[in-house]
Amino acid sequence: MKATYIWGLYPENNEKPPKKHQENIDFNKKYFNSEIIGLGVIKKWVTSLGDEKLLRFWEEIPHPVIKGDLGRLLHVYFTGGLYFDTDCRVNKPLNLKKEDKLILFTEKLLTDVSFLGPRECKSPERMLRIANFAFGCTVTKHKFLKEVIYECIKRLETVIFDSITPLTDEDILWCCGPDVITSIYHTSHKKYDDILLLDSTYVKHLAYGSWRM
Fold it and tell me: What total of structural domains would you count in the chain?
């Protein structure tokens, strides 16, 4: 199975990931074939989706991490395979069954909704957080990912029209980050019988967090 990584979000990034990122990518090759893509690859999926709002907003997206968060969803939606952040290490085989079409990972289990950001829904089930640093599909164009993508577009429209300046880390994460895939999971997962949710023992997120302000 293919594993995709995104690099080159910032103009000052080197063409290749630095050593500590590349070590993770190389480590994961024991489980998956790997590819590294940049935003240039993602742009064609923006066009392929054919959504007028996204086509209009793409160049206005106010932070490269938001483009990366949305881009990973678009790439897996159109190509299938797994996505991992470059600061992820896979701990063990996923052992997928043929009925497992969408693979999600638990990010964390909060102890209180007060840990959630100001824009995030505070319902008790949302304490179970779904990762966006790792996910994947064994098929293309899974309807769950389509829901996540369109929720991103909805939130992106809000951020752009609100003209939030400067964006906080919480704004960036809310727009197309882990709260989106978490929200769609809790509202929609019962519609799908092909979702495999794996616990946090499968992937270690080293959380280098170099983008944060």
Answer: 1
Model pLDDT, residue 211: 66
Residue 104 has pLDDT above 90, yes or no: yes
Cross-strand bridge partners of residue 198: 105
Query: Which residue range(s) make up the domain with 21?
Result: 2-105+132-205
pLDDT in tens, 177-200: 999 999 999 999 999 999 999 999
Residues sharing a CB contact under 8 Å with residue 57, sequence separation 6 or more, in sequence order? 153, 156, 157, 160
Tokens representing 1 are 């199975």
The structure tokens listed for 108 are 């964390």
Catalogue the E-assigned strands of the chain.
Answer: 2-6, 33-37, 81-84, 88-90, 102-109, 128-137, 195-198, 203-205
pLDDT, averaged across the chain:
92
**Within a domain: residue 124?**
no
Residue 155: C-alpha distances to residues 35, 97, 150, 212 (Å): 29, 34, 9, 20
Q: Name residue 196's beta-bridge partners.
A: 103
> What is d(CA 78, CA 200) in angstroms, rounded to the nearest whole number?
26
For CA atoms 179, 184, 187, 190, the dihedral sign is negative
Alpha-carbon distance 38 to 119, whole Å? 29
Residue 82 or residue 207, greater confidence:
82
What does the pLDDT average to over 126-155? 97
In the predicted structure, residue 203 carries a pLDDT above the cut 60: yes
- 156: domain CATH number? 3.90.550.20
